[in-house]
Amino acid sequence: MLRIALVGCGKIADQHVQAIRRIPNCCLVAVCDQELLMARQLAERFGIPSSFTNLEEMLRTSCPQVVHITTPPQSHWSVARQCLEAGSHVYLEKPFTVTADEAKSLIRLAVSRNLKVTAGHNYQFTLEMMAMRRLAAEGFLGGHPVHLESHWSYDLGDMSYVGPVLGNPAHWVRQLPGQLFHNILSHGIARLAEFLDDDLTEITASARQSPQMRRLGDHDILDELRVLILDRHGTSAFFCFSTHIKPPLNQFRVCGPSRSMVVDLSSGSLIRYGNRSYKSYLTYFMPPLNIAREHLGNAYRNVGRFLRRELHQDFGVKELIERFYESIRAGGPPPIPYREIVLTARIMDEIFARIHDAHETLAADGVH
């Protein structure tokens, strides 16, 4: 029975607790938050025996084997380090750390102590993403991906998150190097990092503010981002983060030398694109029919998953946590390779540096 503790009892903590409770052979023994009321309310709602405001006391008293950290990103490095030094494996919510150097430091510490860490990139473990990964491993693409596209959208209409950020100039999101981008886009970057080489030869990034953000009265936070990446093997990648695209896009396209795939996380779908050519007017009929068949297949599978109670909105969270726990029990590799965690952080560092440099140049030129 794995002993689990959780640090940070805000909104996202509920999702972790609910997922953990669906995993066999583990037990939540403690929660911790700087605000005692936050810790107590979470403990009382879910029947967790102990609540703390002091991390050191929690680690010493409850002796958790695994600690989930769901605090603001600025505290991830220090809290995770303390947990690792106490002998606990660590699950860190996204973004893993604020910088790539911090990420590398934590991973080195974990490895040196024979412990494991993972990042909360739960969208890597949805049913459709895992199906895409299996097909890619089986050679469906016909080789290594030639081009990748990752689209990630956020709805500014959800004021439960955006409202406090806009209304408080000292909000922790505003203090991140990438502000709003920093707290959201690691999900979209992580799926690129899986297929990109560590040796990146080019990264270009441009950011701006959407009309909707301006209408909300904020003139500082950027919410539209476009990124182009190239690695040493010639694989190109495009990343788009947007609050303005409607309907919102949450898609991942993988283009290979023979075939391609598109994962749509909004609808839980995987669409396969073949490379077959058709003669004459069949070109206008057969490809649409093939795509229609793909969509119908997805709908059929999702109905089956729903009836079998396999279709949960937080499926990826539960799947990632369960795989992480199994890697601890069995001594196997963690569910997300450390290379991908570090590369995701590196790409984010580069994006924010380029955005900052561009806006410093515009400000110096008197352009707003």
Describe how the helices and strands are arranged:
Layout: E1 2-7, H1 11-20, E2 26-32, H2 36-46, E3 50-52, H3 55-62, E4 66-69, H4 76-85, E5 89-92, H5 100-112, E6 117-119, H6 127-137, E7 147-153, H7 159-167, H8 179-184, H9 186-193, E8 200-208, H10 211-215, E9 224-231, E10 236-242, E11 250-255, E12 260-264, E13 269-273, H11 282-307, H12 315-330, H13 338-364
Parallel strand pairs: 1-2, 1-4, 2-3, 4-5, 5-6, 7-10
Antiparallel strand pairs: 7-11, 8-9, 9-10, 11-12, 12-13
Helix pairs in contact: 1-12, 4-5, 5-13, 9-13
Structure commentary:
The protein is built from 13 helices and 13 strands. With 368 residues, the protein is α/β, with parallel strands linked by helices. The chain has a 7-stranded mixed beta sheet with strand order 8-9-10-7-11-12-13. A 6-stranded parallel beta sheet has the order 3-2-1-4-5-6, sandwiched between helices. A hairpin with a 4-residue loop joins strand 12 and strand 13. Helix 1 crosses helix 12 and helix 9 packs across helix 13. The mean pLDDT is 92. The longest helix has 27 residues. 43% of the residues lie in helices and 20% in strands.
List keywords for this structure.
368 residues, alpha/beta, six-stranded parallel sheet
